[in-house]
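Hi, here's the filled form for the chain we discussed.

Project: internal
Contact: R.S.
Residues: 400
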Amino acid sequence: MPTPLSAARTTLPWAVVAGIVIVALSMRGPIVAPAPVLGEIQADLGLSATAAGLLTSLPILCFALATPLATRVIGRFGPEIAVITCLLGVLLGTVVRSAGTAPVVFAGTVVIGVAIAIGNIVVPVIIRRDVPWQRAAAVTGAYTAALNVGSMITSLGTAPLAAAVGWRWALATWGVLALGGALYWVWLAQRLRGGAVAAPSAGDPTAGGAHIGRIGWLLLIAFCGQSTAYYAVTTWLPTILADTRGLGAAASGATASLFQIAAIVGAFGVPALAARTPAWVPAGVIGLLWMSLPVGLLVAPEAYILWSIVGGVAQGGGFTAILSIIARVTRSDREAASMSARVQTGGYIAATFGPPLAGALNSVTGGWAAPLALVLVATIAYTFGAVGAALAARAPQPAR
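And the returned structure, exactly as it came back:
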């Protein structure tokens, strides 16, 4: 006789997958939404350039600092309530950020960052619990793709909305996505109510405690490299192209957007490759693609469009590969949350230092070779950690 959990996993997989995609649409858009109208916000609130930059960097810092809170919320109230809390927090923060003076705007930004931190941790838990491990990589790819689609929609839509109704209403409008997502998850939580705490099925390839610890450290190295490279490139690629290739703001911004859009290819490419090759192959391929971005911009900068696309594929695939390994090797919701929290805390702390360090290297050297070398080191770290974790996940464990 099927258990409630097995029945839920049999009858509701697409509902859960849809829920994961819906929550992802609200987990990156609120961060990038201020960027297209940063000048208007700065002028309206009387902010310095540094203070205005905090509107996009504060949430990343919150990802790291709020991870312990996220873990407690998941452990005490369960994954479904954690997702609903994430989405309602994003909605609240979006509304607060769109109203009042500068301190109120920054307070709303912090609320958004804390809320998304909960989502960052809980999604791998839900994938591990509700998705058969054979499909975990594909669902993680859909999640990663939805993150980038949400960013793209918000980036493209905020400026036209601001021109029509002002920046405050333009930013507030994106709260509709979070509201719709929260309502969906309230419904889904009702459908899933009564399911037992998940345990891996007999065929699931999980790892023992010491083995899990080694994989976790390797994934931490990988995510530090992934996050440092991603946020450094996201922050500075338009400026690099403007300085080295003489592109105008529109052209450099359009080229840099390819770095974001191409992530969708990587997000779906990793599970497709993983289904046909050993587990370390996708991680290795993504690592090579990642390294080609800084190397290409250094040795063949005239092909900057190619390197932007290749780097975009890598950043989408890299994120998918890391979360897929977490979902595959952990044995319980608690273990998945713990590993996800540890890996993402370290990665996002590293990410907060990546962009300013790259900028400082540019200021000291007067060029972009040193910042690109920093990105190269980060991508090497990703490759080492991701390939090592993939190999360790497949390695036989000592008899106990």
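Let me know if anything looks off before we file it.
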